[in-house]
Amino acid sequence: MSNNHQKKIIIVEDEPSLIFTLQDTLENEGYEVHVVKEGTTAVDKVKEVEPDLMLLDLMLPGKSGYDICNEIRGLKYTFPIIMLTARDQEIDKVTGLNLGADDYMTKPFGVKELLARINARLRRADTYTKAGPIDKLTLGPVDINLKESYVKKPDKDPIQLTTREVELIRFLVTRTNEPISRDELLEKVWRYEHSTNTRTVDVHISKLRAKIEISPDDPKYLVTLHGVGYMLKSD
Fold it and tell me: What's the DSSP call for residue 39?
C-alpha cells in the first residue's frame, strides 16, 4: 500500500461497475475516497471534503461534468480534475480543458494508466504549492493580483481574471523573456499533449491581452512572435 492515506479523491461517476473498480483500486493505494453518483451534489461534496483531486464523469444525472468543472473553478478551487467520458471527440476534450480540467481519459481506460496520471497530477500540485507561486505581478502601470484573480489598470475598475488566465500568467511568468510555442502552452497550461487545435491558445491570449495591456492592439508585454508563439516581456 502506498503512503497516500492523507490524499482525498472524489469520484463523480454514475456507472456502478466503474465506481466499484475505481474505489477499490484507489483505497488499495491508500487514498481516502468519496463517491458522488449524480451531478447536483458534487460541488457540495467538494466544499465538505476539500479533496486533493477529482475524477469527474462528463455525462451525469442532474448536472453535466462541464457545469460541475466550471462551477468548481469559479469557486477558486485549484485541485486537479481528471475528466472521464465515453466520448472521444476533439471538441469535448478542448471544452473540458478550457473549463479548467487538468486531464482527460476516454473510457474504457486502463487502471494502471489512470493511477499514473493521478500520481503525476498530485505530484505536480504538491510541487506547485511548495514552490509558493507568485501572487502579484506588475507590468508597467498595470497591477495583476493572481491570488484574488484580478487586474487593476490606472483609473479603471478591477478586471476579473478566469482560472485559466491566472494559470496562463503563472506559467508565462516562469519563462519571462523566453519565446513559448502554442504547442507548449497547450501542453503545460491546458495539459493537453495531442492537439492540433492551437486556436484555443490564440483566443485566450487575445482575451488576456485585452485585460493586461494598456493598448492591446500594440502590446508591450504579452507579445506575439510570428511563426514561434508568444512571450511575456518584463520592463
Answer: G
Output the pLDDT for position 23. Answer: 96
Residue type, 177: N
Q: Which residues of 11-48 are buried (b: 16+ CB within 10 A; e: fewer)?
A: bbbeeeebbeebbebbeebebbbbebbebeebbebbee
Task: Round to whole Å and give the CA distance between 185 and 172.
Answer: 9
Closest to 58 measured CA to CA, from 45, 73, 42, 77 = 42
CB 216 within 8 A of CB 209: yes
CA–CA distance, 163 with 147 (Å, rounded to integer): 10
| Overall average pLDDT of the 202-230 stretch | 93
Tens of pLDDT along 148-166?
A: 889 999 989 999 998 889 8
Of 63-77, 96-110, 120-134, the least confident: 120-134
What CATH architecture applies to the domain 136-232? Orthogonal Bundle (1.10)
Intervals of CATH 1.10.10.10 along the chain = 136-232
Nearest to 14 by CA among 72, 65, 57: 57
CATH 1.20.1250.20 fits domain 8-130: no
Taking the model in full, what pTM does it have?
Answer: 0.60
Domain with CATH 3.40.50.2300 in the chain: 8-130
Average pLDDT of the residues in 52-69: 93
Which of 88, 94, 38 minimizes the C-alpha distance to 68? 38
- Residues 124-153 pLDDT 10s: 766 555 444 568 889 989 999 988 889 999
Could you tell me if 99 and 73 are in contact, meaning their C-beta atoms sit under 8 angstroms apart? Answer: yes
